[in-house]
Design goal:
Layout: E1 8-10, E2 15-19, H1 33-44, E3 52-57, E4 60-65, E5 74-78, E6 89-91, H2 113-131, E7 143-148, H3 154-165, E8 169-173, H4 176-179, H5 188-195, E9 201-206, H6 211-218, E10 223-228, H7 234-248, E11 255-259, H8 266-275, E12 282-286, H9 295-303, E13 307-311, H10 314-320, E14 323-326, H11 338-344, H12 352-357, E15 363-365, H13 386-406
Parallel strand pairs: 7-8, 7-9, 9-10, 11-12, 11-14, 12-13, 14-15
Antiparallel strand pairs: 1-6, 2-5, 3-4
Amino acid sequence: MALSPQTYAIHKEKLLFRPSTNFLTKYPRGCNQSSFYSNFFTKQQSLVNSSSASIYKQDKHLSFTWPSQMGHLRRPVCRSGGPCYPLDVEKSSISVGEKFQLDDVIESQQFDREIMSDIFEVAREMEKIEKNSSASKILRGYLMATLFYEPSTRTRLSFESAMKRLGGEVLTTENAREFSSAAKGETLEDTIRTVEGYSDIIVMRHFESGAAKRAASTANIPIINAGDGPGQHPTQALLDVYTIEREIGRLDGIRLGLVGDLANGRTVRSLAYLIAKYQDTKIYFVAPDIVKMKDDIKDYLTSKGVEWEESMDLLEVASKCDVVYQTRIQRERFGERIDLYEAARGKYIVDRKVLDVMPKHAIIMHPLPRLDEITVDVDADPRAAYFRQAKNGLYIRMALLKLLLLGW
């Protein structure tokens, strides 16, 4: 018989229910699948005709609710390694579906329009959960580790809030570069192998581009890239696209102005990859010479048939755009060349003059934190969407955590 279409949060060994037709790309080490299934189904043989079942292994208690047909039996799969046994299970209100297409979230190129549309649908459901006064328990029993080698406020807190709002728990280190074994010379790979033994999913920010790929190739649990140096920030890009769709009402035909530090800004790089998925879009690059958008992004856009244009006139670009996406000049990327930083800083500022030429339907976005590149008097204008944008990050990250741990 099939289990009822409900999600079960598993304690300790983190049992996951997946359709029997799915294949796991990362099968647990030390798990004897055939003997486990034999043991599991033998224990349940005498219980299939009852409306509920309880299974014991020593002092551990497993409780299921059984529907009336055997059509789509969901098999339990142990992700922690070692002997796999049924453990404590608690029911929740969201159903388990098919396995999410991705094992990890590393870069924007992983997503297509269909996947993004489906993620946005789940994000809208997460918004309903967040607004509900009663706490959700769909990720009860799961642990998320946040491993941040660079400073973060919004990204780290939004991930931690997302996990807790879904009933999960968090293990966190705010400055892993300075206050972890990395300071002693431990490799990233060794750190990941250690931390995955304590958690079910790792959210990582690193100062080196490509670090997230290294972590994902090492880990046996999902890795989410929360920013890797000047490389990418895919969850930020997803929430940016989600915000544009909610605010403007469409994604095809968007005119997008990317402003500020485009050479070092991982957010604008990731966003450019995602916007290229949509039709009849155009991107304007407005940046000081020292931090212009790099050629790899321009070449990618050209290969996808996306029109782009470089400009030094922010007012002209703002008058044409649906979205003005401002970014700060990142001092931490200049090293000792403070002179170059000072030369780039303050060249393009979004202020009342920019608002005056923008279309009434247009919006201003910013990944935050801001310094002086958007004046505070802009905040009161309804077109200032950056704080709504930040809130949308909660819903996108709730959706990704649910999908990576439980599936659709």
